[in-house]
Queue: 4 jobs
Job 1
Amino acid sequence: MTDSVKTSPIDTYWNLKLEAVKENLENNKFEVFIAQTAQAAKDIALDQIIPKLDIKSVSWGGSMSFISTGLFHALNSNKDLEVINTFDKSLSMEEMLERRRKSLMVDLFVTGTNAITEAGHLVNLDMIGNRVAAITWGPKNVLLIVGRNKLCCDLEDAMFRIKNYAAPVNAINLNKKTPCAKTGVCQDCASPDRICNYWSITEKCFLKGRIKIILVNEELGF
């Protein structure tokens, strides 16, 4: 489902690209929506997706795209849900890891993806692995918020984007002590702060529709 279509040539171009990848994702058994803005993505999640699900618990993986929509704050303040907040900065490492284990059993897990190929495959790279684990198995439902900047032509392009752009920018954002945070260039480091540890490629969704994707016609996240 697509909300009101933008009219600029650039937005029209991206709508065409997003409609094509939406079709391929749906052929791969994902449930897919298109939003023109981050606010529209939040509205789709709250008005169209979540009400149709029997959700009593929710958690999330690290995603600037998710936060930028405002959905993080809407869910985190929902008193009707058991919220497992794995990014509470007051948590010890042990407490944080335990919450991330529990987050694999929630009714809804919300996050982003590092890349989507034009063929409709998800490509991700994690530090701890809880995000790629949740996308693959555990939570009853997964919702991904994905900006148009995550679209890549193929698997090789997706992996290049992640290692040479998304990972260094994320390392800088997280103040990690890695070479790429200083140089902007991946050096396949052995740093204790390395965030590139677990690759995941999701070609198809099983069970059908378990993973729901909102494609956003804006640049979101890294």
Note: The longest helix spans residues 9-27.
Job 2
Amino acid sequence: MALSLLNRLFGQRAAEPALGALTHPLDLHAFTERYAQALRATWPQAQLRIGHGAQLADTRIDWSLPDGFADTRYVGHSYRRYLDAPGALEQVLAEQVAAARESQRRHARGAEAALDEAILPVLKTRGWHEVARQQARAIGGGARVAFVIEPLVGDLVLTFVEDRPDSMDYLSPAEAERRGLDRETLRECALRNLQRFLPELDVQGENGLYAARLDRNYDASMALLFEHWRARVPVRGEAVFALAARDELIVCDSQDRHGLSALRAMAQEISRDSAYGLSAQLFVHRGGALRVFEG
């Protein structure tokens, strides 16, 4: 804030103040009315109410919008700034409108945040992505896609859904952009939401081979959070994953050659036969990320 103030003061030459503004500054009531006019000009649908108290600091403008947004602008500070430089009236008002706009933006983001809590990550394959693109072209979608796709590892990609009590829909690139969710922010949001399911994750097995069970929707996705539950899988070497289906997550010890052979066979069979099949490849959790297992 200090830097922006310096830029405003010294970054460019200020306009010459009007003589009348210097010799006859507005009183508090007139200034407050001008302030309210600036808000009305920006939000014609706003409801405004001016309140004057016993002291300068009590003067306020309460305003609201039809969408439920409500805010209070206290006038005292901006009026003092105006009295220090009466020729800068429009600048002072513009700054206050900008502050009010920021309050509205925060309110809107609060509503969006509730929507963002429904976003969850889902693993898919590159083949699925290509089929979806072909279907979109076939129905006239051209190059447009209805979902965000992010390369993940090997033949897997990552997409995102909005999982609500009454529906589950893919998050579209247009909707993600509207909410200000770039790829990094979107992924962080989805993983943060997925962490809510950690207490429900049931890890079964022993002797180096384990199955992680969740809800048949996000089982495979839990591999993205392995660092949060790796203590429940006591492998001696690296953790090797079969992500063969949406509802299957099997983990093996990289030092268990027999277990790896069994894991590879399971991955091939499940990915081929499951209605939610994913990859026949094996993956290793290394350096905080999934990588194709070459062992």
Note: The first strand starts at residue 47 and ends at 51.
Job 3
Amino acid sequence: MYDLVIIGAGPAGLTAGIYAGRAGLNAIILDAGQSGGTVNTAPLIENYPGIDKIPGTELMKSMTEQTKQYIEIREFTKVEYVECSIGSTFEIKTSDELISTRYVILATGTQYKTLPVEGVDEFTGRGVSYCAVCDGTFFIDQEVIVVGGGNSAATEALYLNRIGVKCSIVHRRDQLRCDAKLVSDIKKAGIKIYWNSELKSVKGNGRVEEAIIYNKKTGEETCLNVSGVFIAIGYNPNNDLAKKIDIMCDDLGYIETDKNMKTSIDGIYAAGDVTGSVKQIIVSAGQGAQAATRIQNLLL
């Protein structure tokens, strides 16, 4: 019997693990993939306090190694369901075993949104990408577009430009929605922006060769000769486990919590991007610390 099972090994889950382990709780972290979550795909992080600039993979590697000093992390372990058991405990079913625990933290994060656009699914992995740091080097000296206008899109575009990819941005509005510093950096880098435009289709012969964009104001379609399309339009919450046991979520599917990160079910907490909070590493880490500390106090 564990005191705490943390589902998800992103910033929220790892921080919760550090706090739980240091408090002496018998805890474990389970993650369906690699420790670090979507932060592993961040090309460069420039707003984490105390660290000027660091690639996402390096920050998460450091955080993972620190967490492993205190508790076990089981990567590539998919949780199939969580259910209430006898005596206010929970059963966690993975593909390999059944785990009993007194408390649960859902730190399952989010996944990239895609576009219902002709050619996007067909060419995913063959020119269509959701991760500049993963795939950017394949497009050095080639033309690509980044679709989106928020922090994610701006960061992706700046990274691609930095490594020598000829990058433009396609945004459906007439101004970017990212931080002012990123707007300034994009201007300095001379990155072209197609305003009021949407991706209409992606075409090619085996790999991406063209992207058709549509200008909503003029009604014009433009064919861009590109080798890559990077989609950076936001995220959907990974809330399947929560929905299976009727944990309350908001209209967008994010898990609702109180100030201590408790969900609508006693004993189950949530932390990180799956709660719909500001999608920043420091916020996720703070929520993980809050949830683990609350559970620690309840177990005293």
Note: The helical segments are 11-22, 56-67, 120-123, 132-135, 151-162, 180-189, 240-244, 281-299.
Job 4
Amino acid sequence: MQAQRQLAGLLDQLNTVIVGKPDQVRDCVACLLAGGHLLIEDVPGVGKTTLAHALARAFGLQFSRVQFTADLMPSDLSGVSVYDRGREDFVFHAGPVFAQVLLADEINRASPKTQSALLEAMEEHQVTIDGETRPLPSPFFVIATQNPMDQLGTFALPESQLDRFLMRISLGFPDRAAERELLRGEDRREMVHGMRGTLTPEALSELQARVLQVHAADKLLDYVQDLVAATRSGRWFLQGLSPRAAIAVLRAAKAQALLGGRDYVAPDDIQAVLPQTIAHRLQPVGGAGRGAVEQVRALLEAVPLP
């Protein structure tokens, strides 16, 4: 019961700041509860950065923000060793990646070299600098925002980087009622600055442990494997999902079930998270006339429920 009250309060607080997008907010919370990294992709001005700030604040975690630009260097993220004459030795100055939440704003405006600097951090929760491996804080999340690929000055994220994100979501334009509330209401950035953390790091760790304990029946695991096998058939996508992606789907579904107040995963949980969890990892077959998200939805309709 306490966990449900905590999660309900967290969702209410976020929905006060990000109006008219309850499904997307729920996906974001599920992603972080599952211990995954989050990618928010959309056109400028729809609230990507505001949502990322609000998530970090609501989870009660220390965070840092980096504005990715074409001239950003890997050392600007990880930090540098500087010679200290007083000590007669090199002293390491940690970069912004040493935070519990790293907000990588407009990640696809940086060069591929800088983007790749995040790979080790996202997968291993550590960085190697000057031959020395340094652990990152726990928990460690990357919340990245990016603009659509057709925008000027963007570099596409490589497949290996996209695979490190548990989910990719898109906010889209608000409906008329939500937009009217934005026009009449308080400035969203001021609201974010006034937010107090709903959770503590300890409470978050407990919730993440509960996510792992959510039960998945054998028939449901069969369903996940059927969906993964369908992506590998060559009918919808050029290449299918990896086992890591299958594990990501199950973790996200478990978090979705916990948000729904259940200790078991239902097929609806799988269907609710599948497009956001796998579409960014897949490339539709040529001539399909659909994007990856639409292809995933077509796959869902074709694979029978358990």
Note: The CA atoms of residues 43 and 151 lie 9 Å apart.
